[in-house]
Write a sequence for this structure.
């Protein structure tokens, strides 16, 4: 990823948090270990963070802190799948999925009486991407395919969803966070989104 | 999992070798060798235990000698003898009054060291209390760190909220054995909110409220609140940020 990096000092300056808070959050797994990037600098070693991800995460922690304990927050941010089961009706009631997405799932033959978190996640991603107009219905069924077949592989790791097109033919991919990918000339990367953000939103909605 | 109290106990009071397994209470009063994983409610070692596998015990007390070739998971560990762990140690409560070597990382809530501990990996806990000797080759991340220096201790880096490293006048045990060198602490980086240091050698110290006491040698201090430097301390440069 060609994410912009921010040094620890600048980060604390910018957000006004203290070293103590930063380390406490790290201990509570609110900030993943991978985000602590060690680089050598003129004073020896310095720690850097992926700027955008880190700023959004800190903003979320600070804004949600009052309502939830740090341990509950850690649950929200962890990529681990929890134990949830919900029916299609319950999901509709909670505004997690709408009927067009559910129809698409039915067409793909993946309809179920009860959905586990893994599948709810798939529905939620589908719903969000369809609503935002990023993908077409046809691409939606590809998404259902790749998510239901392979998402479980990333049960404990951060992953990203990729949509590429070549000559108008779409392909979805699930890759581990931060992997480097190179394509030939004709390929256009339409979407590249970390699934972690969806998971956080979804867990808050379910919570 | 079956109810733990319905399991059998394992008692060794001679010389014995076992394959491991699940037990309720395990007590080793002689010499035992375990060739596999051991899962138990309580483990007490008064003799010698050598393990090849993972140990998971609700509470573990080691008064003799213990060598583990595998990780240790527990909710309460007390080492009064000599213990070497070739793996990670995870226990909310850890108390070491003897000598303990961990060739992995340590995760806990409350860690109390009265003896000697050497850790090859990172340490993560809420409070670390040391009255003895500690050597950490990795990163120490703790809510509060309180180290009373008796001998030469070290850590690669320290981060936390309250960090307090102070000298105590040598007396009694540590003085009489005269081991471990003069009281000093060596690290490359200390970052925290409230920092109090004595006899510490560090490249960089960053914090909001910093006190650099006697015997310190610090290359660079960065602070956001207050800084106090003892006349007996050496500070290369200090900078308000």
């Amino acid at each position: 990823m060609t994410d912009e990096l921010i040094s620890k000092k600048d980060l604390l300056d910018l957000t006004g948090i203290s070293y103590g808070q930063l380390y406490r959050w790290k201990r509570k797994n609110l900030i993943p270990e991978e985000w602590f990037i060690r680089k050598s600098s003129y004073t020896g070693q310095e720690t850097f963070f992926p700027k955008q991800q880190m700023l959004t995460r800190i903003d979320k922690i600070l804004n949600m802190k009052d309502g939830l304990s740090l341990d509950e927050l850690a649950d929200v941010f962890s990529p681990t799948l929890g134990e949830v089961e919900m029916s299609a009706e319950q999901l509709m009631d909670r505004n997690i999925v709408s009927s067009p997405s559910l129809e698409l799932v039915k067409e793909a033959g993946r309809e179920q009486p009860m959905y586990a978190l893994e599948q709810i996640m798939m529905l939620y991603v589908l719903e969000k991407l369809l609503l935002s107009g990023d993908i077409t219905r046809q691409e939606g069924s590809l998404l259902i395919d790749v998510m239901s077949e392979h998402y479980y592989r990333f049960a404990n790791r951060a992953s990203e969803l990729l949509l590429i097109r070549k000559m108008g033919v779409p392909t979805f991919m699930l890759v581990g966070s931060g992997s480097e990918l190179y394509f030939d000339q004709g390929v256009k990367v339409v979407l590249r989104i970390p699934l972690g953000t969806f998971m956080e939103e979804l867990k808050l909605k379910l919570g | 999992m079956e109810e733990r109290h319905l399991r059998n106990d394992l008692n060794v009071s001679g010389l014995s070798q076992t394959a491991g397994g699940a037990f309720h209470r395990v007590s080793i009063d002689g010499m035992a060798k375990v060739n596999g994983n051991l899962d138990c409610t309580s483990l007490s070692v008064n003799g010698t235990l050598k393990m090849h596998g993972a140990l998971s015990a609700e509470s573990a007390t080691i008064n003799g000698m213990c060598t583990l070739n595998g990780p240790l998971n527990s909710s309460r560990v007390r080492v009064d003898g000599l213990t070497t762990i070739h793996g990670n140690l995870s226990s909310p409560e850890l108390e070491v009054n003897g000598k303990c070597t961990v060739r992995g990382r340590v995760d806990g809530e409350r860690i109390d060291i009265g003896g000697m501990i050497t850790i090859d990996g990172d340490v993560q806990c809420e409070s670390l209390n040391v009255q003895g000797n500690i050597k950490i080759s990795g990163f120490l991340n703790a809510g509060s760190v309180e180290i009373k220096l008796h001998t030469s201790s070290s850590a690669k880096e320290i981060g936390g909220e309250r960090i307090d490293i102070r000298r105590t006048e040598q007396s009694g045990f540590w003085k009489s054995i005269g081991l471990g060198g003069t009281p000093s602490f060596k690290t490359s980086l200390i970052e925290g909110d409230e920092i109090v240091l004595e006899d510490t050698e560090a490249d960089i110290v960053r914090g909001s409220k910093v006190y650099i006491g006697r015997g310190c040698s610090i290359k660079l201090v960065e602070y956001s609140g207050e800084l106090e430097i003892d006349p007996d301390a050496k500070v290369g440069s200090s900078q308000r940020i």
The mean pLDDT of chain B is 90.
